[in-house]
Design a protein that fits this description.
The protein has about 625 residues and is an all-alpha fold. About 70% of the residues lie in helices and about 0% in strands. The protein has 29 helices and two strands. Strands 1-2 form a two-stranded antiparallel ribbon. β1 (about 15) and β2 form a beta hairpin. α2 (about 45-75) packs across α23, α22 (about 460-470) crosses α24 (about 495-520) and α24 packs antiparallel against α27. The longest helix has about 35 residues, at about 105-140. The radius of gyration is 29 Å and the shape is globular. It starts with 12 loop residues before the first strand and ends in an 11-residue tail after the last helix.
Length: about 625
């Protein structure tokens, strides 16, 4: 019989537990095995620990397994491809893909030029989005600009719309037959102006389009800090007669630096993996080169995907370092309740407001009109009704044709309203979007809750990081990894909704987890502890206390995956055939030359997203621009 470890004398011990009521160790597990059992029991009695353990294991597999699969694919010999020819074998493993990609005479074409273009595209996109979005955030939050409510709500439209929307609009406006060999755009048709090729295709238009698409990121992140910034900091500098320029660089910009850094990290990773914009605007990047190499240079294409993933991991590392190195700023006096706003003048506040209305019209409203107009043109680029005033030059054949007609440019397709391919793809898109939203939203909310409860735990930090990693990885690389993992002789889920839902859920979990984490950190632990004292079950605490308090943030965690999934192309491009969902169907009709059909699909996607976004705003009051300038 063993003695009690906390007593000097040898007490009465039953199964290793002190039974002497006079000893201070009574009720304590003196035996190490019982103590360990109690610790495990206590650990698993907390729901947040079970959530972290379960999803830590699942997310580790779902993130690491595709990466391992794609790394293996880079050294695998694929029958009928270039690596089989170079290796002289039909199966097995080889490093010839690495040697050929990095050292062959095609290395510049297949690797270095696309890599350089990708880095330049990401850098220029970050620069444009921060300058445009940051300036807009400053005007809305720190000046007496007019029309703020309208501008704030309309400015986020480019991000809500599909990524390729502005790229297609750019083509419809600036392309010309004389320069790029396609049908004339609005500018060439109406006034005969043919823009140079560098303006129509390549790095410049791709950077501008992606910069405008991601500018709402900068607006939301930077605008939030501008709005909540302590006015005493700048007021103290003004009292000390500090020049405004010095105040800007020594006080304002350091305060906004975390938001700028977050914008750079998010936009850089997203723009690196963009496929639709470079594809439409003729820029060769790692994403477009992966698609072109994948059929014959399969192993080398996988190396390109690995390179994109390395950038994603590097971005995550930079994000973690930046979180540890951020400075805190504190004022000795109390926090001011009023922000000092810059006076733009009686004329300036209206003039700048009107300029911003014009800019946001062309980036937010005009694309909808442009796509609608394209569906009534008799032929692509035929804008004759504009300068003749004859509306009979318009047609409704793209919408209402019921027969398989080939002689009028329909290529045997039914009209949009009667086209089974389009509406079957639309139903599939809604199915995938709803399932991804429900799964990603639920998992992300649970992870956010668990991480917030165990915020000082290393395991919680790991789970939070591994959940966020897929978002920082380029979408085309994530899609390639899941394609390789789930399209082989052992398991083949290619062209199934199951595969799309798995990939979409893993990719979009960060939307819900970050939204839930930020909101859960605002809830005091005492609220839930009071319910625990009353012996209220965890499920009831969640549905009756936690979720109602942070309803808006949690709903946003469901809506963001839903809206993003509706317009996703890069992630799903390799996972299904053309015509399976709307985004790949759009690509199919583009290749056929049926631009009216692809414009109609764009229009359907935009209207669907705007309807759901408006419904959520009305029902819950949640809005992306809420708290910045919208209200």
């Amino acid at each position: 019989m063993r003695g009690c470890r906390t007593c000097v004398r040898r007490p009465r011990v039953t199964y290793g537990i002190c039974r002497n009521k006079r000893h201070p160790c009574f009720r304590k597990g003196a035996d190490i095995s019982v103590n360990g059992y109690n610790r495990v029991k206590t650990y698993f009695s907390k729901p947040q620990n079970i959530i972290l353990l379960l999803f830590g294991i699942v997310l580790t597999f779902s993130t690491v397994a595709p990466i391992v699969a794609i790394v293996k694919d880079t050294i695998t010999i694929h029958p009928g491809t270039i690596d089989a020819h170079l290796a002289g074998k039909a199966s097995g493993y080889t490093l010839v893909n690495y040697v050929d990609l990095f050292t062959s005479r095609l290395a510049k074409t297949n690797l270095w030029k696309p890599l350089w273009n990708t880095i330049l595209l990401a850098v220029f996109t970050c620069t444009i989005s921060i300058i445009y979005g940051g300036t807009f955030a400053f005007l809305v939050t720190r000046t007496n600009l007019k029309f703020k409510k309208y501008l704030s709500s309309i400015f986020i439209f480019p991000y809500i719309m599909p990524q390729w929307t502005l790229a297609v609009v750019w083509q419809n406006v600036f392309n010309s037959n004389a320069v790029v060999g396609t049908s004339n755009g609005l500018l060439a048709s109406l006034v005969g102006i043919c823009m140079p090729k560098w303006w129509c295709q390549g790095l410049f238009p791709s950077s501008v389009v992606l910069g405008l698409h991601y500018a709402p990121f900068a607006y939301i992140l930077i605008g939030g800090i501008f709005r909540n910034m302590d006015a005493n900091l700048e007021e103290a500098a003004t009292i000390l007669d500090t020049p405004k320029l010095k105040t800007m660089f020594r006080i304002t910009l350091p305060m906004v630096k975390p938001a700028i850094l977050s914008t750079i990290l998010l936009v850089f990773g997203s723009s690196m993996g963009s496929y639709p914009v470079p594809h439409y605007l003729g820029l060769t990047t790692l994403s477009t080169k992966y698609i072109s190499l994948n059929s014959k240079y399969t192993g080398e294409a996988s190396i390109l995907a690995i390179i994109m993933m390395i950038f994603g991991v590097a971005i995550l590392t930079m994000n973690q370092v930046s979180l540890k190195s951020r400075k805190n700023y504190t004022t000795v006096t109390g926090k001011s309740g009023q922000l000092s706003k810059m006076n733009l003048g009686k004329v300036g506040k209206y003039a700048i407001g009107i300029v911003m209305i014009v800019l946001t019209f062309f980036t937010s409203i005009f694309p909808i009109f442009s796509f609608a107009l394209e569906t009534f043109l008799p032929n692509p680029g035929d804008y004759s009704f504009l300068y003749t005033g004859d509306l009979s030059n318009l047609t409704t054949k793209w919408w209402i044709t019921k027969e398989n007609i080939t002689e009028n440019g329909m290529y045997g397709q039914h009209g949009i309203l009667y086209n089974n391919t389009i509406w079957h793809a639309f139903a599939g898109t809604l199915l995938v979007a709803v399932c991804c939203a429900l799964l990603a939203g639920t998992i992300g909310t649970l992870i956010g809750y668990a991480v917030a409860k165990n915020r000082r735990s290393r395991w919680a930090s790991y789970v939070n990081g591994v959940a966020f990693l897929p978002y920082l990885m380029p979408s085309i690389a994530v899609g390639a990894a899941f394609f390789i993992l789930f399209s082989n002789e052992h398991i083949n889920l290619f062209n199934t909704y199951t595969l799309l839902i798995i990939a979409g859920t893993i990719k979009y979990i960060p939307f819900a987890s970050r939204s839930a984490l930020n909101s859960m950190l605002q809830i005091s632990n005492e609220i839930e502890e009071a319910a625990i004292i009353q012996d209220i079950p965890w499920t009831k605490r969640m549905f009756r206390i936690i979720i109602p308090i942070q309803k808006s943030a949690i709903i946003s965690g469901y809506m963001l995956p839903f809206m993003t999934c509706l317009r996703e192309l890069s992630l799903f491009l390799l996972l299904c055939t053309q015509g399976f969902i709307l985004s790949t169907t759009l690509d199919y009709f583009d290749e056929m030359g049926l631009y009216a059909f692809s414009s109609a699909i764009n229009l359907i996607l935009i209207v669907t997203i705007l309807i759901f976004n408006t419904l959520v705003n009305k029902l819950t009051g949640a809005s992306l621009d809420d708290g910045i300038g919208g209200n």
